[in-house]
Amino acid sequence: QVQLVESGGGLVQAGGSLRLACTASGRTISGYAMGWFRQTPGKEREFVAQISWTGTRIIYAESVRGRFTVSRDNAKNTVYLQMNSLKPEDTAVYYCASGPIGVTQIRVNYWGQGTQVTVSS
């Protein structure tokens, strides 16, 4: 029983930055990876990034590599997604996720409710 709550979404111009945060509550699972996905209308939810419990193993989707940075603060039960050089195609609802780490992406056991990120031209 884990609840994930995202925050930090909003409207930003292309080239700008946003920092998303996801805080876990309830029965948090030590050792679980945390990750970020995003979804746009008419498309499947897309993997963005994941970070291991220790923060030493990180995987990014090719579309965001070099622009986004994922980090976590286990003392605060929080994972962050720093998004720089945002592009209009980054517009999506961003979802936080928690679960066992995967080779290519997190195996999701828990989802957040999502936070909207809109990047204008």
Compact overview of the structure:
This protein is 0% helix and 52% strand.
Q: Can you put this structure into words, describing what you see?
A:
Helices cover 0% and strands 52% of the residues. It has no helices and 11 strands. The strands form 2 sheets. Strands 2, 4, 5, 6, 9, 10 and 11 form a 7-stranded mixed beta sheet that branches. Strands 1-3-8-7 form a 4-stranded antiparallel beta sheet, with no helix packed on it. It is globular and about 40 Å long. It starts with a strand and ends with a strand. 33% of the residues are buried.
* Biggest β-sheet description: 7 strands, mixed
Question: How far do the termini sit from each other?
Answer: 40 Å
The percent of residues in helical segments reads: under 10%
Mean pLDDT: 94
Total count of strands: 11
Low-confidence stretches: none
Task: Quickly count the helices.
Answer: 0
Structural class: mainly beta
Outline, from the CA principal axes?
Answer: globular
Strand content: over 45%
Oligomer: single chain
Q: Compute the gyration radius: what is it?
A: 13 Å
Q: Secondary-structure element sequence? A: EEEEEEEEEEE
Strand-helix topology:
Layout: E1 2-7, E2 10-13, E3 18-26, E4 33-39, E5 46-51, E6 58-60, E7 68-73, E8 78-83, E9 92-99, E10 110-111, E11 115-120
Parallel strand pairs: 2-11
Antiparallel strand pairs: 1-3, 3-8, 4-5, 4-9, 5-6, 7-8, 9-10, 9-11
